[in-house]
Structure of tRNA pseudouridine synthase A:
Amino acid sequence: MESEAASTTAQQQNTENATKPPSEVSAQTSSLAPATAADSAPAADANETVQVDSRSTSNRGGKKGGKRARDGQQSKNPDMRPKRGRTDWGPRTKREGEGEGNKEPRRPKRKAACLIGYCGTGYHGMQLNPPQKTIEGDLFDALVKAGAISKDNSDDPKKVGFMRAARTDKGVHAAGNVISAKLIIEDEDIVEKINSHLPEQIRVWGITRTTNGFDCHKHCGSRIYEYLIPSFSFLPPRPTSLFGKRIKEMEEKYPGGRRKDPEGEAFWARVSAKLAEAGITQEHVLEDYARMLRQTANIPRESGDKRTDRGSDDELDAQPLTEEQMEIFNRIRAIEDRERRAFRISLDRLELVRKAVKVYEGSHNFHNFTLKKEYTDPSARRYMKNLSVSRPHLIEGTEWISIKIHGQSFMLHQIRKMVCMAAQAVRAGTPISRIKESFYKQKLNIPKAPALGLLLERPMYDGINERLQSYGRGELTFDPYNEQIEAFKQKYIYDKIYAVELRENTFYSFFNFIDSFKGGHAMDFFTAKGEEDDTAESEVFLDEEDKEELLSGDEADREG
């Protein structure tokens, strides 16, 4: 009966509350609540904390009560309650220049391959290297200006996954190279927009959509390089040069160890005849000319040469040249230069060059053809697919030949050292088969040929093209742009190579440097002796470029 009465009273109370103001309802409800121990306790000060029993709190408050219990205490004053997390939340301040009017709309990015070509003259290589002027630096700026990369991502190439297929060295050219990145390529004329922001010596041939996982460096199956070199580079050294004398000395000491070279001997006989016609016949004059060439060779050295058999040469080299000597030497140089430019390589000599480069085909240990690479390093083994030598072609009075090198991958300076090794074997009369010995454990000093003649023809993606097509993407190939590429090569690469050589005598200076090198017996490998003496004090061919790269230690993915 008591429960029924209580229920009836509650219903009547709810009916009356429905018609009362909220304030009266609250006061009435408070007065009807049962008394608790807290109600009968003395009133607490406003700043006094009250200890809470964890069990009763968790039972009454559920999750909220449990949280308070873990705090161990609470305050009746909200300002004194423990504060959690950040306390400095507030409205976000806008960055400088940010606003509704200039906020760049988000546009979709697509993983793509950008096919490019460039002339490396005047650039400090391919890869970004602030503050140096590089190909990637100009290219990345052009992509941003053309809208292919958003301004939000313009401060760091890594944000768009920027990567190159081949990292070429300072001064090296590329008729074809590839960079991959996440690009905004909605505009149909995006290629033209990018090119409008590039110098004429850098061109974008086309852009191809790829899969999201595409990496132009890792997925590159092979690379084709071309090296242009004047045919006179395969002539033997001047007989009065240090290297020429060493070849003769070792031939007498080790008879039968050198290939006869009637064509080379005939060339220097013609030069001697021309000098005689000009009234220059004294032997000591030619010796002085050789000394002058050593003075002007600008030979870099890694360390002091400790040999004791060169003192007289050093004393002579230190003597200044008279005006009369300089006048005679300029006449000698002019005669030699004319004869070199007039030289036309014979079919027999051209066949020797072809045989020399063919030795590189296949899988070999190229530890001697780069920097800081040991024989036991597995990465020193590289696979060369094909090497070929073109027929000679005449450009402005100088005969040139082209060497094509198709390899799976290359190391830093590898191609330039391969070219120099082949040239030295032909010049010095070395048996062509001796090139194979450079793949063995013995450490050799192999100079690197000038960067001027080297260009990347194109990277190849035969292996991944089938997969790209299965995803509805186009083939990654330079073939559609062959006509443009050939015109670009002729104007911005070939013509510049020819002009620089004619103006600066780059190849003549390089081989004169080798022939005048006073670094112990560093060139004995190319003589009849056939190998270097491990006990001899010999200097190493290290120029400023080599020293810079040894200090930087970042040659891992560099080629050429």
